[in-house]
Structures are given as C-alpha cells and as structure tokens.
Amino acid sequence: MLQEALTHLVSGIALRPEDVSVASRSTDRGEVLEVRVHPEDLGRVIGRSGRTAKSLRTVITSLADGRRVRVDVADTDR
What we know:
There is one protein chain. The protein is α+β, with helices and mostly antiparallel strands. The chain has a single domain, classed as GMP Synthetase, Chain A, domain 3, CATH 3.30.300. The chain has three helices and three strands, in the order αββααβ. The longest helix is centred in the last third of the chain and has 13 residues, at 51-63. A probable RNA-binding protein. InterPro entries: KH_dom-like_a/b (IPR015946), KH_sf_prok-type (IPR009019), KhpA (IPR020627).
C-alpha cells in the first residue's frame, strides 16, 4: 500500500509520470522505498532545500501506522 501511495504522489509531481518507479525492499531496520524519476524531474521531486522530499516522507510515515519506513530519492546518474 505504501509503495502505491508513494507512486501516486510522485507521479502527480513529476512532468514525466510514466518514468516514475518505486521499489520496495525490506531490511533489518524496516522497509525502504526507493523512488526513481527521469533526471529532469529529480529537482521537482526533491524540491527547494529538500522540502518536497521531506513532505513525501512525512506523508508516507504517517500512512505506515508505526512501522519503520525510509523513503530514498535515487540519483539516476550513479
């Protein structure tokens, strides 16, 4: 559910929603959601001083019902 919610939110922000992908993996410290977008949309998803990314993390954390979740915005150039 968290993966679909994050995909929906990021697709609404990105100019190329077809290039949005969210991968989920479990670690010993909780769930990690990794967001990948088109390189031109990276700045839009992160926002000024990381405000948009922080807001996305806040929404997803509130949906997680106490579970540990980390949201990472992946840099596609690496």
